[in-house]
Amino acid sequence: MSGKLIFFGTPGFAIPTLNALERAGRTPYRVISQPARPVGRGRKLQEPPVAEWALERGIPVEQPNRVRARSFLELIAGDAPEVAVVVAFGQIFPQKLLDIPRLGCINLHASLLPAYRGAAPIQAALATGETETGVTTMLMEKGLDSGPILLQRSLEIGPGESAPELSERLAETGAALMIETLDLLERGEIESRPQDDSLATLAPMLTKADGLVDWTLSAREIHDRLRAYTPWPGLSTSLRGEPVKIGDGAALEGDGSDSSSEPGAYLGLREGRIAVACGGDTVFGVEILQRAGRKALPAAQFANGERLEVGERFGSEIGARIE
User: Fold this and answer.
1) 264 within 8 A of 275, measured Cβ to Cβ
2) What is the helix (H) or strand (E) element at residue 63, kind and residue range?
3) What is the DSSP letter of 233?
4) Is 305 in a helix, a strand, or coil?
5) Is 136 left (phi over 0), alpha (psi -120 to 50) or beta?
6) pLDDT score of 119 more than 90
7) Could you tell me the pTM of the whole model?
8) Domain identity same for 176 and 272
9) % of residues, the chain, pLDDT over 70
10) Are 109 and 138 in contact (CB under 8 A)?
11) Tens of pLDDT, residues 78-95
12) Which residues contact 181 (CB under 8 A, 6 or more apart)?
């Protein structure tokens, strides 16, 4: 693009778009990312992936705590950018910021809008058992992911695909879609179309509580949530009043019509997995389990160590996160 391009983004999901911009000769003149955050047990400050990408290339980086701050808005206005590319940045843009780039702020969103507006569209699509999702480029406005759609590209979701795997594919597809969007925008050959708000669904930011297993759901639904919430917040349940993290598992063939088949009941070992009764007379087989502060164990070893008895109940009343 002949004009100046500014980039807003924070996590690794945005890196394929930055790489695509660089290959296309559209390297941003400035990158805006979230501030460094403390991570790990040592709480050491770590730069977000987008900031690291820019710093490695000597591109100026700004990391404002608030993009609505007057000093930041004055800085960006003084740059007079032609267009802003936004990929998983993490802050809401005020109207004053949206109005600065001449061609607007172009956002890449990891869903087929208006489906799954919000912070966790990939996890939401998996958790609800979708078989198709995609990416959308849109003109940003003040509403939550409600701006006019520019381009979209759909992807099939694999039956066992996890959130990290799907995120990687969507990031690459989205990067190519963003370059196509900018090309068409520059030539004046793209027309936006409004979203149908009546079809909108929401994908809010995940919390620890999202990972608590509801055993009244079907085994397939629980598996979908395992795919969606790995690695964070993960799936967790409880046993004998203490939390247990579920590391892996799958729906099992057969039904849960044993004599002690209330949802959450332990049905014994099946196919090397801990079989747990679920809603709809279905059975979920847990492969890996972990107690807080201990190492993860395969199902048979966990069952033997805990001396599990058929009919014991797994529950979800414990919400503590297990590291």
Assistant:
1) no
2) none
3) T
4) helix
5) beta
6) yes
7) 0.93
8) no
9) 94
10) yes
11) 999 999 999 999 999 999
12) 106, 137, 150, 151, 190
Q: Provide the number of structural domains found in the chain.
A: 2
Q: What are phi and psi of 55, to 5 degrees?
A: -65, -35
For residue 243, the enclosing domain spans: 208-315
**CB-facing half-sphere around the CA of 171: CA atoms within 13 A:** 18
**Quick check: 105 and 145 in contact, CB under 8 A?**
no
CA angle 31, 151, 143 (to 5 degrees): 65
282 plus 176 within the same structural domain:
no
How far does Cα 164 stand from its chain's mean position? Answer: 8
Please name the amino acid found at residue 71.
S
Q: pLDDT band at 316, cuts 50/70/90?
A: low
Counting beta carbons within 10 angstroms of the beta carbon of residue 180, is it exposed (0 to 12), middle (13 to 18) or buried (19 or more)? middle
Distance CA 145, CA 116 (A): 9
Q: DSSP alpha helices (H): ranges in the chain?
A: 15-23, 49-56, 70-79, 95-98, 121-127, 163-187, 219-228, 299-306
Shared-domain flag, residues 162 and 38: yes
218 residue type, one letter: S
Distance CA 117, CA 247 (A): 28
CATH code of the domain containing 222: 3.10.25.10
10 Å CB burial of residue 38 (0-12, 13-18, 19+) is: exposed
